[in-house]
Specification:
This protein is of the alpha/beta class. The chain contains 14 helices and 16 strands. The strands form four sheets. An eight-stranded mixed sheet has the order 5-4-8-1-9-10-2-11, sandwiched between helices. It binds 2-deoxy-6-O-sulfo-2-(sulfoamino)-alpha-D-glucopyranose and calcium ion. The site of calcium ion has 5 residues, from loops. The site of 2-deoxy-6-O-sulfo-2-(sulfoamino)-alpha-D-glucopyranose has 8 residues, from loops.
C-alpha cells in the first residue's frame, strides 16, 4: 500500500515536471514568406480572384491582420526591415541596389543566441551572406523559377525542378533533420509570385477557361495625382515585355532586351519542361497571332495573361503552405509552433493600370499577414490595428522570451494575440520609398497613414497627396489643398513631422 502510494506520488510529480517543461519550451517559429503577394490574391482577404485554402487555413485556425503595412514597398528593403526591426535609413538598406550589412543585430541572430536552431531557405535577396542561421540555402539574387541554383556555405548547387516545390521540400527536409531537442526558427521564403510570373508544371493548366474580373481602375487617367503617377513605367498597357512578361513567342515580339531576358529564363527548362510549357500556352498564343487585339482590348488581353500567370504562381505557394502545415500536424509540432504567412509587400494587379509595387498607395503598402499559435491565438481571430513589418522582429523575440535591443523601432504584436489587445497602441505609420531613378520610375516619397487618412510628400517633386480612405478607398481623388480637409491636412502634417523625429529620419 505504501509502495503503491509512493509510486502514485512519483508519477504525479513526473507529470508535473513534464507539464512545466512544456510550458517553459518557447514556441518554434515557422515563417513562410513570399515575394509580391497582393492581399486580393488570398481568399481569406478577398475571394473574387482565387481560392487559397492553405493560407486560409492559418487564418481560420489563427489570426488575420487587416491592416499590416510595409515601411518601404520593395523587396530587399522589406526583408532588411523584418530582420532588423529598424526602418530602412537606419538598417542601411534603402533600395534594392545596396548590400545588407549582416554584422548588425537581427532577430535570427538573437534567437540563435538564445538556443534556437535557425534555418533560412529560399529567396534571400540581400546580396551579403546570411548571418544568424545554423543552416542556409538561398537563391542567388532574384533566383530562377526552373532548375534554380542555390547558394550554400559550401558553394552553389543547381537543383532540378520548380522553385516553389524545391523550397518546400528543402524546408521539410531541414525540419526532419534538425536537432529535435532545440526550439527552432525556420524561414521558408518563396521567389513566387515575383515577376516574371512563371508557373510550375502542376499549375500551368489552371485558369485556362474563362476570364477573371478586371479592376475598375484599370484605365486610370491619374487626374489629381502627383506628376510621377503619369510618368511611371509600370503600366500593363505599355511596360510589360511581350515575351518575358506575357509569354508570347519571340517571333511575335521582336525586342532585343525582352528576347534576351525571356531566352535566359526559358533556356533553363529541360526539354520535357519546355514541352509541358509550350503545350500550355500554344493554343492561346496561336489565337493571339491569328487575330491580335488592339487598343483597350489589347490591355485587357495583357491583363488576363498577367493575372492568370500570377495566380498560377500563387497556387504553387498555397500548396507549399498546405504541405508545411501537414508536416507540422504529422510530427505533432502544430501545438507549439507559431506559423506566420506574409509577403514582402503588396502588388498591383491592374489597379491604376499597373503591375509592380513601390508606391505608398494601398495595394502595394498592404502586406498579407496571418498567424497561428494554438492555445495563444483564438481560431478565426481578426485584428484591425495598424501593424508593420517593422514589428516582426520584436514579435518573434517577445514570444521566445528574448529581450529586443533598444535600437529596434517596432512593437511586439504578441499583445494582439489576445482579443482584448492590451498594451498595443499605434495611431499612425511611417513610410518612405527611395529608389529613384530606378526600375519603373516611381518618384521618391514619404508619408503617414492613419486609420482613415493618408498624406504623401513627393519631396523631390515638391508635390503632396492627401487621401480620405473612407470616402475614397481606391485613392482616385487627391484632396490635398482643398478647403474641406484643411484641418485634417494640418494634423497629418504635424503627425508626419513627429514620426520623422521619432524614427530618427531627421
Ligand atoms: C526587379 C524588381 C522588379 C522589376 C525589375 C525591373 N523586383 O526584378 O520590380 O520589375 O527588377 O525590371 S525587386 O525584387 O528587385 O524589387 S526592368 O527591366 O523593368 O527594369
Ligand atoms: Ca517583393
Amino acid at each position: 500500500m505504501r509502495i503503491a502510494s509512493l509510486r502514485l506520488f512519483a508519477g504525479l510529480f513526473a507529470l508535473l515536471l513534464a507539464a512545466q517543461a512544456m510550458a517553459a519550451t518557447p514556441p518554434n517559429i515557422v515563417f513562410i514568406f513570399s515575394d509580391d503577394h497582393a492581399l486580393r490574391a488570398i481568399s481569406a482577404y478577398d475571394d473574387t480572384l482565387c481560392e487559397t485554402p492553405g493560407i486560409d487555413r492559418i487564418a481560420k485556425e489563427g489570426l488575420l491582420f487587416r491592416n499590416a503595412f510595409c515601411t518601404n514597398s520593395i523587396c530587399a528593403p522589406s526583408r532588411a526591415v523584418i530582420l532588423t526591426g529598424k526602418h530602412s535609413h537606419l538598417n542601411g538598406l534603402m533600395d534594392n541596389r545596396q548590400t545588407f550589412d549582416g554584422a548588425q543585430a537581427t532577430f535570427p541572430k538573437l534567437l540563435q543566441g538564445a538556443g534556437y536552431q535557425t534555418a533560412m531557405i529560399g529567396k534571400w535577396h540581400l546580396k551579403s551572406e546570411p548571418t544568424g542561421f545554423d543552416y542556409w540555402k538561398v537563391l542567388p539574387g532574384q533566383g530562377h523559377y526552373y532548375n534554380p541554383d542555390f547558394r550554400t556555405p559550401e558553394g552553389t548547387v543547381r537543383i532540378e525542378g520548380y522553385v516553389t516545390e524545391i523550397v518546400t521540400e528543402e524546408a521539410i527536409n531541414w525540419l526532419e533533420s534538425r536537432d529535435k531537442a532545440q526550439p527552432f526558427l525556420l524561414m521558408a521564403q518563396h521567389k513566387a509570385p515575383h515577376r516574371n510570373w512563371m508557373p510550375g508544371p502542376k499549375e500551368l493548366g489552371l485558369y485556362r477557361d474563362g476570364d477573371l474580373p478586371l479592376p475598375d481602375t484599370l484605365f486610370d487617367d491619374y487626374a489629381t495625382r502627383n506628376t510621377g503617377a503619369r510618368t511611371q513605367e509600370m503600366t500593363i498597357a505599355t511596360h510589360m515585355m511581350p515575351s518575358y512578361d506575357l509569354k508570347l513567342p519571340l517571333s511575335l515580339a521582336g525586342n532585343d532586351r525582352d528576347d534576351k531576358l525571356w531566352t535566359s529564363n526559358f533556356d533553363r527548362l529541360n526539354p520535357a519542361q519546355q514541352a509541358t510549357w509550350n503545350a500550355a500556352y500554344e493554343a492561346e498564343n496561336a489565337a493571339f497571332a491569328a487575330d491580335p487585339p488592339e487598343g483597350e482590348a489589347l490591355v485587357r488581353w495583357k491583363y488576363q495573361r498577367y493575372i492568370k500567370d500570377y495566380l498560377r504562381c500563387i497556387q504553387g505557394v498555397d500548396r507549399s503552405v498546405a504541405a508545411i502545415l501537414d508536416y507540422l500536424d504529422r510530427e505533432g509540432l502544430a501545438e507549439n509552433t507559431l506559423v506566420v504567412y506574409s509577403s514582402d509587400q503588396g502588388f498591383y494587379l491592374g489597379e491604376h493600370g499597373w503591375f509592380d509595387k513601390r508606391w505608398m498607395y494601398e495595394e502595394s503598402l498592404h502586406m498579407p499577414l496571418v498567424m497561428r499559435l494554438p492555445g495563444r491565438i483564438a481560431p478565426g481571430s481578426t485584428d484591425e490595428h495598424l501593424v508593420q513589418n517593422l514589428d516582426f522582429a520584436q514579435t518573434f523575440l517577445d514570444l521566445a522570451g528574448v529581450d529586443a535591443p533598444a535600437a529596434m523601432q517596432g512593437q511586439s504584436l504578441v499583445p494582439l494575440f489576445d482579443a482584448a489587445a492590451r498594451g498595443f497602441e499605434r495611431d499612425s505609420i511611417y513610410y518612405q520609398y527611395y529608389e529613384f531613378p530606378g526600375a519603373h520610375s516611381v518618384p521618391k516619397h514619404y508619408g503617414v497613414r492613419t486609420e482613415r487618412y493618408k498624406l504623401i510628400h513627393y519631396h523631390e517633386l515638391d508635390e503632396w497627396e492627401l487621401f480620405d480612405l473612407k470616402q475614397d478607398p481606391k485613392e482616385m481623388r487627391n484632396v490635398y489643398g482643398t478647403n474641406n480637409y484643411n484641418e485634417v491636412q494640418a494634423k497629418l502634417t504635424a503627425e508626419l513631422q513627429q514620426l520623422r523625429r521619432e524614427y530618427k529620419v531627421e
